[in-house]
Amino acid sequence: MSPIVGSKQAEQLKQDGNSYFQKNRFGAAIDAYTEAITLCPNVPIYWTNRALCHRKRNDWQRVEEDCRKAIQLDHNSVKAHYYLGLALLQKELYAEGVRELEKALDLGRGANPGSYMVEEIWEELAKAKYLEWEHESTRRSWELQNLKESCELALKEKHMLDSSQIEGLVDENSTSLLKQLEAVGKVFMRAAEDDTPTEVPDHLCCKITLDIFRDPVITPSGVTYERAVILDHLQKVGKFDPITREPLYTSQLVPNLAIKEAVHAFLDRHGWAYRID
Question: Beta-carbon neighbour count of residue 133 at 10 Å?
């Protein structure tokens, strides 16, 4: 079979797979994509299409395998990094999953910043960062509790040893022990404060949606909005700033890089320490 004929057959099989997918016939779609891969194994989209079918069937091991192959063929495949990130999260490899989702988000914003997939990836990344924080928080809390108990036990053992060696100072030693245990408790309480969920500051949230900024833009009047929200307002409501009522046009919107960096800093520090429903 000539390469041209094989390529045409593979493309037809991909179209067949797409048709099956639309009808929720994921098994048939997988078979079609697999045949396309057999004919043309170096086409990344065949692998990511099949990975999406595996995702629909919650077959995350195969999702990971197909995505890794797609990335070998195309390092800039948004879907491959995205689906791989989701698969890694299912394995509770949170740090690796977050890195893949961040890669997918960066690639998606560069290729098509207004696409629905960029928004979807951003939301999944936010959830992933929370899961990563929650996992690390649980681990650190367990370690802190064990360390606290070890310190308390050591202090009590020292108190018993001192009391047995020094007669007549039992009451004094008991008072000292209580103070030491109280001090230890305060130290560990302060250490645990870093793992307390934090509310998002108001200046990091859009004044319309009240949600944390994803793609903040600033208007000439100095008000910052979520880009998608203000664009929707300008298109459907009118060419004016919804808060100041000043005339406003799309060309006047400027990315608010300071707020964007502040959002990233907040997420990095607090691990997205609140739920997104």
Answer: 20
